[in-house]
Specification:
This protein is an alpha/beta fold. The protein has one domain: TIM Barrel (Alpha-Beta Barrel), CATH 3.20.20.70. Helices cover 34% and strands 19% of the residues. An eight-stranded parallel beta sheet has the order 1-8-7-6-5-4-3-2. Strand 6, helix 5 and strand 7 form a beta-alpha-beta unit. Helix 2 packs parallel to helix 3. The N and C termini lie close together (6 Å).
């Protein structure tokens, strides 16, 4: 059974704290926090102040912060100080991967690295022994509500084999188009963490939706 990480970007911002409380009550183990700069991806989302406020309201939550930024290293410290538990950045970004991972660890956060759909998963192999999590994007990053790209599960399977071969224990996360059907496919392929946006939050009963997703 995989862990659920509801994507806060899909929550109702008019009652963000309550939506997140309901998600956690429904079994969510992480809160996935998507940060977009309008440059690395063609959209803008939220930043440090919202995370700081949410962390103050729900300090017990694990914040999985996904930096879809051109220069993520510049934002490691601000997001860590705002309450990030894990900071995840793209291998395709401009920041040096080794320096960025060192900066994340220096702030006491767990490390993550993300791969876009068109990027070979092997691009993260040099860093696997420094990672707590690898995120496979199963949609093009930047917008919610896209359809699941099932061929991305081949990347998951490749990662699972490499993890076993090297005796590592990083988590494999997937994000994009996850629902109760595609979530099952992802778990069968070896995914440890499911990021769900609209399926978790754009529903009348967030707690019930997260309960269903948490059982996959």
């Amino acid at each position: 059974m995989a862990m659920l990480a509801p994507s806060v970007l899909s929550a109702n911002f008019a009652h963000l704290e309550q939506d997140c409380r309901d998600a956690l009550a429904g079994g969510a183990k992480l809160l996935h926090y998507d940060v977009m700069d309008g440059h690395f991806v063609p959209n803008l989302s939220f930043g440090v102040p919202v995370l700081k406020s949410l962390h103050a309201a729900l300090p017990e939550a694990f914040y999985d912060v996904h930096l879809m930024l051109t220069d993520p290293i510049d934002y490691v410290k601000p997001f860590a100080q705002a309450g990030a538990s894990l900071i995840n950045f793209h291998v395709e970004s401009n920041s040096d991967p080794v320096e960025t991972l060192a900066a994340i660890r220096a702030e006491g956060c767990k490390t993550g690295m993300t791969v876009k759909p068109k990027t070979p998963v092997e691009s993260v192999f040099p860093y696997l022994d420094q990672l707590d999590l690898v995120l496979i994007m199963s949609v093009e990053p930047g917008f919610g509500g896209q359809s699941f790209m099932a061929d991305m599960l081949d990347k998951v399977r490749t990662l699972v084999k490499e993890r076993e071969r090297r005796g590592l224990n990083f988590l494999i996360e997937i994000d994009g188009g996850i629902n109760t059907k595609t979530g099952v496919q992802a778990v069968e392929a070896g995914v440890d963490v499911l990021v769900a946006g609209s399926t978790a939050f754009s529903v009348p009963d967030v707690k019930a939706a997260c309960q269903a997703l948490s059982q996959l």
